Amino acid sequence: MSSEYAKQLGAKLRAIRTQQGLSLHGVEEKSQGRWKAVVVGSYERGDRAVTVQRLAELADFYGVPVQELLPGTTPGGAAEPPPKLVLDLERLAHVPQEKAGPLQRYAATIQSQRGDYNGKVLSIRQDDLRTLAVIYDQSPSVLTEQLISWGVLDADARRAVGHDDA
């Protein structure tokens, strides 16, 4: 594996981990020691080659398809992907049901499909946000502002939808 490829792969691994709100130590804790912080850190820095088997296992641990971890798979080969959309499920639970009901059901469906029940955060795609915008009968940017005001979505999400809102 070339050094540049290893660094790009590592950057993707780091992005997925941080998107899920995990520190290196958090990965070790969540995996009950299966993934050592020092090993994951060396993969992320590109200091250590990761086998295909271990990459598949790590993708499974993070709950993402393997191709999401591979360099060069971003549309158009963008150097930096747009910010990830991460719902704060703990804050969502405190939003009144009459406002957040559709979002709560949508998030529960995604969790069920992924088998991801950490209950703290949930990554969604821009397509998910567009679907939710239709459900809420709002544009993606208006819905984004609403979710930010509820404290469910980070303000960085504005950048993810800013160029994508038609």
Short description:
The chain has about 170 residues and is mainly alpha-helical.
Notable traits:
single chain, 166 residues, 5% strand, 9 helices, 2 strands, Arc Repressor Mutant, subunit A, mainly alpha, 434 Repressor (Amino-terminal Domain)
- In whole angstroms, how far apart are the ends? 40 Å
Q: What fraction of residues sit in β-strands?
A: under 5%
What string, H for helix and E for strand, traces the elements in order? HHHHEHHEHHH
- Could you name the ranges where pLDDT drops below 50 across 5 or more consecutive residues? 74-79
Widest sheet: strand order?
1-2
Q: What coarse outline follows from CA principal-axis ratios?
A: elongated
| Share of helix, binned | 55-70%
The number of strands is 2
- CATH fold naming of the largest domain: Arc Repressor Mutant, subunit A
What's the domain count?
Answer: 2
Describe the largest sheet: 2 strands, antiparallel
CATH class term of the largest domain: Mainly Alpha
What do the pLDDT scores average to? 85
Q: Evaluate the radius of gyration.
A: 17 Å
User: From the coordinates shown, what is the CATH architecture of the largest domain?
Assistant: Orthogonal Bundle
Q: What structural class is derived from the secondary structure elements?
A: mainly alpha
The total of helices stands at: 9
